[in-house]
Amino acid sequence: MRDRFDVIVVGAGHAGCEAAYAAARLGARVGLCTLSTGTVAHMPCNPAIGGTAKGHLVREIDALGGLMGRAIDATGIQFKLLNRSRGPAVWSPRAQADKKIYGRWMRAALDGEANIEWLIGRAGGLLVAHGRVVGLTLEEGDAYRCRALVVTAGTFLNGMIHIGPEQSASGRAGEPPSHELAESLKANGFEWGRLKTGTPPRLDRHSIDFTRSVAEGRFQPERGDDPPVPFSFLSPRIERLQVECHLLHTNQRVRELVEANLHRSPLFNGQIRGIGPRYCPSLEDKIVRFADRERHQVFLEPEGLDVREIYVNGFSTSLPRDVQEALVHALPGLEDAELIRPGYAVEYDFIQPTELTRRLETKRIAGLFLAGQVNGTSGYEEAAAQGIVAGINAAHLTMGREGFEVRRDEGYVGILVDDLITKGCLEPYRMFTSRAEHRLLLRIDNADLRLTPRGRSAGLVDDERWERFRARQDRHCHNTRLLHETLVRSDSGDRVPASQLLRQPGVRLASLIGEGLVPGVSLDEAAASIDIASVETEIRYAGYIRRQQSEIERAGKEERRRIPLDFPFERVPGLSREVVQRLGQVRPDTLGQALRIPGVTPAAVAVLSAYIGRLTT
Amino acid sequence: MFAVTDTIVAVATPPGPGGIGVVRLSGPDAHAIACALIARDGGLQPRHATRATVRLGAADLARDACTAAAARSGPHLGRGATGDDAQDTVPGSSRAGTDRGAIDQVVATYFPAPHSYTGDHVVELSAHGSPIVLRLIVRAAIDGGARLAEPGEFTLRAFLNSRIDLPQAEAVGDLIAAVTPLQARVAFDQLQGTLTQAIAGIDAALFDLIARLEASVDFPDEGYHFIEPEQVGAALDDLSRRTRTLLAEARRGRLIREGFQVAIVGRPNVGKSSLFNALVGASRAIVTDVPGTTRDLVTETVDLAGLRVTLVDTAGICETQDSVEAEGVARSRGALGSADLALIVVDGSQALDESDRDLVLQIIDNTRLIVSTKLDLPAAWTSSDLGAGPIVSVSARTGEGVEELRGQILATLEVEPALADPPAITNVRHIALVERAQEALMRAREATLADGVGLPEEFVLADLQQARAALEEITGRRASDAVLAEIFSRFCIGK
């Protein structure tokens, strides 16, 4: 057996990169196994980072000391803050990336870590002894020792690509699947399932006349924010060139083509059995399910500043090539567009995340961690969030340190992990703000206030970030106090504290500052908008925030009441067999988690709660 | 199909001798244990009232032949069903022959899960209402592997098995405790699910609104409108209207469920006791013990137009130096404090006294009715002399005015007798939760109105989620063990 590593990470996608970086930063010797360094942090689908709730995840990953936020800030070509017209809890940053440059940036960041060594090859089987992971073999034959293994295989486990009737075993277009790794995992008894996801065709930008189509009103230009709002708490202003995207709509002709060819769609003719993401439907899905809608939105997004590929957002499909061509040409303005690559669907195996602990370690095999799409999630951001959790925990495991767990009320990272390990996946999991019962407290502006201290004690936040954070914390306290103490003249002529004035609708802190009414407010030049957002939100919506906090406290006792390890659920009188079986499968560590298991009723949890003290293991 | 892990047993009928006594078994071994008790090899036909004989001592012979799952290990029946002196006192127990150990003829009915009261397998043995026999049967069942049920445990299981929700479980308790037909009707209504349906209707509308708002927050740029801004206000108004309608009945409902207390106060010798007797005599007496009233006050619980009313005859409130009398006065004041209505009795045939006026002034905060007694005698004063509003004049001796007084009592409390629809909501726990939901809805409504611009959806949603959480606490979809323990401990064993 070859070199001994502390941690081996399988897969250099979004989850793998965060995991490898985190573990390396914490001092572990990391082997990063990938097919090729050319596909590091590849974006096989939408060349974008962020969006509703996903943007929250990216902010949190950054707050913890991860890579994704900085990567997109360095390579983004159009930035937009979604839900701007709504409230601060649902503002969500999103950015298009220059896809190739994004990958190169990540590669460079990992190359810059002395603790990371590249293992180029195809991951094969797990080496397990006495219920612990001891190493990894590659299909080429080499074997490596390690004390912790993080598998981030994405869509590669027994991956199968469908383009119409064409099927090929692939993890992604042009890349071989992982068969041996898939079987090695299943052989250890993990519960697994099969999912599918899809991607649209790519068009050659030179075959599209954007100017004319805009002039003729067939394309609507979409510009990003000016100035762009960065993701990372460390980023300076973004000065890079920003691109335009274009919006157009499907029409009757598109609908007719889809309907006429449904029998040739692998999604509809039974060729694909995996379950697809409900929230990211294919074109066929949309035409069929929303039959009463006359048209659907389609966005043309460049995949980079200097590349030919245009990504057709909203046009994910696995119809045969000839149908895809006809469909594209049926769209207004795209009559002569050339397809560089067709869209396709990919089916893949995943491991049920109920097999995992809150540290993303499998319950069956110590030292084996799973993160990313292999757990049934969809999205680069969801993958990266799991990657950072798994990476920290893998390193902690080898260092004998306490594990790293994020609670639901601390961040979307906590909600993601808890949902996965408690409920499992019946379909690809995507994060939404509605999954957060404490949405008002989990905002993008306070991600650092919530999580940077956690990242610091876990060892991932370096001094530079920590100093910046401390300064930010100080500014926040200072500004909050200042606003409570500074008197401002209100409309009625009274002098009231600025904080009181801020509670009136229509009054904005930025204006008060601009008018010089609150001298002494301390703002960081680059992070001014975050400073303002945090203090304004907390003052303006103090009542709501207070209510959510007291709800957390009220539920907190019950929520955090721990269930002892190996608790004998079957000995609690009054629980049905089904409930006992669910509890035994998930093995919740708190009553709160037990309550979230599907099929476990609140009444059952109430009875369980009464017996926790009484029954010994 | 649900199956819980142990089998419980208890006497389901009230304690004391009676014509029939029912022993109820619930759980996976209910059938096996029952068959063993009645020495029935072939099992019981489901839902078929079957005549049988309970035998003690032959049980262990029959058990192996029984068709249902094996019973748990327990003390063997070899030493006699109960192991105590029961064997000696049971006739025929020492005789050889087929009737050895027979203690009663019963009617056994087997309800296989899930279509039973609890949702488990249930067997009900209707025996003669002999306390000793029933006790023997229960002991035999325990020896056969069952466990004595906790208070309310059968109903708790029905709830855990989702046969009934929490208000329905509470209604079982209310129904058992009802003392007037109206109380029974209201409880039965709740058991039928009237409240559950009303809540479900509100919850469904609430959920729909929440879903639409969440969708518009989570899918901002799909180009779909899930709900127009003007519609949000209208939807919230509708929800508020529904909760208000429920709450409008709440006061009346609460009075029906809990009954109310009427304290009769006045100077000594104005005719309070005669009035008390007249009111009692005119109403149907209820012969149950009324908890919570001081024993030294004369109380009587009556059915007043379907409402459970406790009349309290007080000792008379006055200034006194006498310590015993002072004690009585203190108690009277106490009764006054806990009464829903005070009847201030003034002697109609005697001139008004300072203490009469004082009394009227003192009780001005409580709900009160001023009653002038001795109508059959010449009146010594009129209502304008007292200057405290309308009075009701009665003669306890002739009965004149008593009927009108009863009507006035109901009218003052705004509890109209038996209207067509009984109030859907009667329980303080439910009322408090609906009020909490109502407050959250009002906050949400204000949030959408603020200056025409309105607060962003996530704040409206925060309040809507709170409203929903309150409703879920009513039905028990969200339940804390403290609440459940409290509810079910109020039941008796066997319910």
* Number of separate helices of chain B: 18
Q: What strand order characterises the main sheet of chain B?
A: 8-9-10-7-11-12-13
Alpha carbon gyration radius of chain B: 30 Å
Domain module tally of chain B = 3
The main pleated sheet of chain A reads as: 6 strands, antiparallel
Cα end-to-end separation of chain B: 23 Å
User: Based on DSSP secondary structure assignment, what is the total number of beta strands of chain B?
Assistant: 13
CATH topology of the largest domain in chain B: Gyrase A, domain 2
Taking all Cα atoms into account, the compactness measure Rg of chain A is 25 Å
Low-pLDDT stretches of chain B are 58-98, 287-295
Computed structural class of chain B? alpha/beta
Summarize the amount of helix of chain A as a percent range: 25-40%
Average of per-residue pLDDT values of chain B: 78
The portion of residues assigned to helices of chain B is 40-55%
Tell the overall outline of chain B: flat
Commentary on this structure:
The complex is a heterodimer of chains A (617) and B (495). Chain A is built from 20 helices and 24 strands. Chain A is an alpha+beta fold. In chain A, strands 16-17-18-19-15-20 form a 6-stranded antiparallel β-sheet, with no helix packed on it. In chain A, strands 7-3-2-11-22 form a 5-stranded parallel β-sheet, covered by helices on one side. In chain A, strands 1-10-9-8 form a 4-stranded mixed β-sheet. In chain A, helix 2 packs parallel to helix 10. With 495 residues, chain B is an alpha/beta fold. Chain B folds into 3 domains: 157 residues, Gyrase A, domain 2, CATH 3.30.1360; 120 residues, Four Helix Bundle (Hemerythrin (Met), subunit A) (Up-down Bundle); 155 residues, P-loop containing nucleotide triphosphate hydrolases (Rossmann fold), CATH 3.40.50.300. The longest helix of chain B has 25 residues. Chain B is flat and about 85 Å long.
